[in-house]
Amino acid sequence: MKIYQKSWQTLVPGQIEDVWEFFSNPENLQRITPKYMNFRILSDLKNDSMHPGMLIRYTVSPLANIPLNWVTEITAVKHHEYFVDEQRIGPYSLWHHKHHFRPQGIRC
Fold first, then answer.
1. Structural domain tally of the chain?
2. Which residue in 30, 37, 42, 49 is a FRET match for 61, CA 20 to 30 A apart?
């Protein structure tokens, strides 16, 4: 299996605590996903903070408006530093997605 890697950085103005609070809240996934993806969360995530073992079910329609079921699991969380989600059901052979957070000027 060929493995592809994609990497990008985004500068988000604000304090690390506030940025972490927003991006680590699974309820905000829909808000940050491009509208053309037709991303819809199916899991009940109310008042559930991100934690290892958390499963998130959703549908996404990236091509021809055909909905795909997708399930990801949060596999690692280090408060204010990173979290990792991995696909359990979905369109990819492998999906391992790391989200790193650091104050501007500090390198990983």
1. 1
2. 49
